[in-house]
Amino acid sequence: MREPFGPAVDNEFETLPHCRDIPLYGATARADPRPDDWSTVPSRPSARTLALTLAITATVTLAACSDGGTGGGELTYEDSPLSKYLDAVNGGAWDEERFAKQQQEIEELVAACMADEGFEYTPVDSSQTMSFGADPEERNTEAWIAANGWGMVQTEEEMEAQQAEAEAYVDPNQPYVESLSPSEQEAYYATLYGTPPTEEELNDDGSYEYSWENGGCNGFASHEVQGESFWEDERFAGLMEEMGTLWEELPKQPEIVELNRNWSECMADAGYPDLELRWDAQTVISDQMNAFWEGQENPEGPSAEELRELKEQEIEMALADFRCAKKLDYDTTQFTAQFALEQQFIDDHKAELDELVAAYATGE
């Protein structure tokens, strides 16, 4: 399903340049806590799944999708008028400490819920299973990009290191789960995550609509701590749709049209022709990544050499993008145009925004 903001994409974490790991405009970065394969349910998701399971519900404007500093200007995403306006809804900035605190509250509620249903459950220390990755300021330096590109392609060595980290994690609930009979384990997971979806509930691609009411103790605890989401509130459906048009309008602004034209020419001079918009550069890499698995005769995917070559290509293209953006002072121009659109949106929808803030202010 398309998120409220930004273009529809296959991978919500690879939507725009410099948007990796940042959901657009408050989209929730949450992996469905219920397992995909109900016949072989693990006692705990992998480290990567756990990181995604954290409810990242921070309102992030398009500004977060820019370099955040490569352009040399003084404006940053923190100057976003819309983001500031909705701070009361989001409870301010999110960091590892705040995420960990919220997740610990969820874990304790899960334990109480499971106990009420007759099962044991030990709260998991989320600090062992979550990661925010590199600091945004570090990511937006030439040195970081020269080593990582946009951070999209993982080499075989990097994937093996992640797998080793995941396997090193020890689930405190594993011994208890293993002490249960197969039927008791099935009941345990149904209580923890909810019952599996029926065939009728599955979409053609195997996905399904997740609802906390059907998410077992995990769904209950998450909802209890995180509360209702205004993104799903019908009262503000029209406002959310209108807010989504900000993304569509930004590239149409005359200064952004000229900016992208100049960026395209700069990239062509660097050896990358036929790129019209800035996110086209990442699309080139993501399309090649997808091609490795789509129609691949080798079901195991790309070889280590293929991944290394694509990683090198990503780094070279990302460096060219970084240097062109810096030369053009890309951020300052984009932020200026974007923030003007945001302020106009606030002026035009102040009554509705005030109603939303009044209904969902966290008080934090």
Please give a structural write-up.
With 364 residues, this protein is mainly alpha-helical. The protein has a domain at 24-95 and 126-152 and 232-360. It is built from 16 helices and no strands. It has helices at residues 47-53, 81-85, 87-90, 96-116, 136-139, 142-148, 156-168, 174-179, 182-193, 216-226, 237-249, 254-269, 280-293, 304-328, 330-348, 350-360. Helix 6 runs antiparallel to helix 14 (304-328) and helix 12 crosses helix 14 (304-328). The chain starts with 46 loop residues before the first helix and ends with a helix.
How is this structure best summarized?
This protein is mainly α and 364 residues long. The chain has 16 helices and no strands. The radius of gyration is 22 Å and the shape is globular.
Proportion of beta-strand residues: under 5%
Roughly what percent helix?
Answer: 40-55%
Q: What's the total number of strands? A: 0
Outline the biggest β-sheet.
none
Which key phrases capture this entry?
364 residues; 0% strand; globular; mainly alpha; 52% helix
SSE diagram, text form:
Layout: H1 47-53, H2 81-85, H3 87-90, H4 96-116, H5 136-139, H6 142-148, H7 156-168, H8 174-179, H9 182-193, H10 216-226, H11 237-249, H12 254-269, H13 280-293, H14 304-328, H15 330-348, H16 350-360
Helix pairs in contact: 4-10, 6-14, 9-10, 12-14, 12-15, 13-14
